[in-house]
């Protein structure tokens, strides 16, 4: 069944943002196509030995299942775990090097989003394709289970899913009974507030905000990562702002400049109370097993009054 996150045809183009697009935007590499509609393939009879992953979260999951040694090529945006630094980079979803893909002789290619050139190449060369479609936490659990089946590591995948669920439950228990501040999660260029992306209700980020004891101020938006206006932000008056940063170094000067941008708007509670947070953790926008780290980080930001978790 297609996850609810993919039932967004007919929405304005600016709202059709998948997590794959977010990774590309944050890396300053432009936009990205919407996820492909092809079904996920059936489990092969033998585990793959040579894998190319264009999905950073899938690469992390594979390594988390102890199969990192099978990776022969990854997207430019695959930066974790450290073992992947030695794996050849084949570009991104929009610009994969097809010659390199062929030279690496994969028996499995993991895609996230639509790229007909690489999909056709895989079809013509009889290379299996797995479509990564993680947007929600339920999608994540399903994908871990499917990848576990593909690699013959179902028991390990089940254990990983249980660990994620238990860790997220522990975060939720820690903030239970506390107030729920209004939280704005932003994905934007540090230089402007003109184009702010945020997390809609169907995204795993919105789920993690809730688990961490906050209320997503745009949790009523059906788009995964909608673009919101400054007027909408002011009207919802967030009490906590989480600015998701990437490769930008968060220097004191940059921090001051970005806070000044917020200060130029009509008063927002998060700005008045110095609760604008800049977070550059690499896992913040990647739906892998590291969502547990994101939940803990968000809980620390949203509820600094509570003792830190384990």
Outline:
This protein has 310 residues and is of the alpha/beta class.
List the helices and strands and how they pair.
Elements: H1 19-26, E1 51-53, H2 56-64, E2 71-74, H3 98-103, E3 108-111, H4 116-124, E4 128-131, H5 137-150, H6 154-175, E5 182-186, E6 196-197, H7 204-211, E7 215-216, E8 227-228, H8 230-236, E9 240-244, H9 252-263, H10 269-272, E10 276-279, H11 291-302
Parallel strand pairs: 1-2, 1-3, 3-4, 5-7, 5-9, 9-10
Antiparallel strand pairs: 6-8
Helix pairs in contact: 5-6, 6-11
- Structural class of the helices, strands and pairings? alpha/beta
Strand content: 5-15%
- List SSEs in N-to-C order: HEHEHEHEHHEEHEEHEHHEH
Give Rg in angstroms.
Answer: 20 Å
Tally of alpha and pi helices = 11
The residue-averaged pLDDT reads: 86
Determine the N-to-C terminus distance: 36 Å
Reported for the largest beta sheet, the result is: 4 strands, parallel
What does this structure look like?
With 310 residues, the chain is of the alpha/beta class. 36% of the residues lie in helices and 11% in strands. It contains 11 helices and 10 strands. The protein has helices spanning 19-26, 56-64, 98-103, 116-124, 137-150, 154-175, 204-211, 230-236, 252-263, 269-272, 291-302, and strands spanning 51-53, 71-74, 108-111, 128-131, 182-186, 196-197, 215-216, 227-228, 240-244, 276-279. The strands form 3 sheets. A 4-stranded parallel β-sheet has the order 2-1-3-4, with helices on both faces. A 4-stranded parallel β-sheet has the order 7-5-9-10. Helix 2 links the parallel strand 1 (51-53) and strand 2 (71-74). Helix 5 packs antiparallel against helix 6 and helix 6 (154-175) packs parallel to helix 11 (291-302). The longest helix is centred in the middle third of the chain and has 22 residues, at 154-175. The radius of gyration is 20 Å and the shape is globular. It starts with 18 loop residues before the first helix and ends in an 8-residue tail after the last helix. The model is unreliable at 1-39 (pLDDT under 50).
